Amino acid sequence: MTWTTIETGRGIATLINVFTVAPERQADLVALLVRATEETMQGRAGFISANIHAADDGRRVVNYAQWESEAHFRAMLADPVAQEHMTQAAEIAESYDPRLFSVESVHHV
Fold first, then answer.
1. pTM confidence score
2. What is the pLDDT averaged over residues 83-101?
């Protein structure tokens, strides 16, 4: 099993997708993202990890996911089964903003 590790210089693709959602739909979106991860994403080549965060105010859900490379991430986007989950998430959310990031700095106590 691979765990989420945040460090510079790994050369992985980090997806941060911020969803805006009606508070009464936040739990639905979280459940969908968890199910999509467990049923679909974990089995895709290059998948490392996913972490689903729910804002305390009920208005946001964040998916922080790691893929071995941007090519692996793009291959997942082209997969019809993954597209089905993404379409369902888009129907629940008011908006979403997926972006790939590189880790530039990490600090620990």
1. 0.92
2. 97
Angstrom CA distances, 66 to 34, 45, 80, 92, stand at: 15, 12, 20, 23
Of the candidates 14, 33, 32, 8, which has an alpha carbon nearest to the alpha carbon of residue 99?
14
Answer whether residue 2 shows pLDDT above 80.
Answer: no
pLDDT digits over 44-76, tens only?
A: 999 999 999 999 999 999 999 999 999 999 999
For the chain, what is the HEC assignment? CCCCCCCCCCCCEEEEEEEECCHHHHHHHHHHHHHHHHHCHHHCCCEEEEEEEECCCCCEEEEEEEECCHHHHHHHHHCHHHHHHHHHHHHHCCEEEEEEECCCCCCCC
From the CA atom positions of the chain, what is the Rg in Å? 14
- Residue pointed to by tokens 């888009």: 90
CA triple 57-55-19, angle to 5 deg: 110
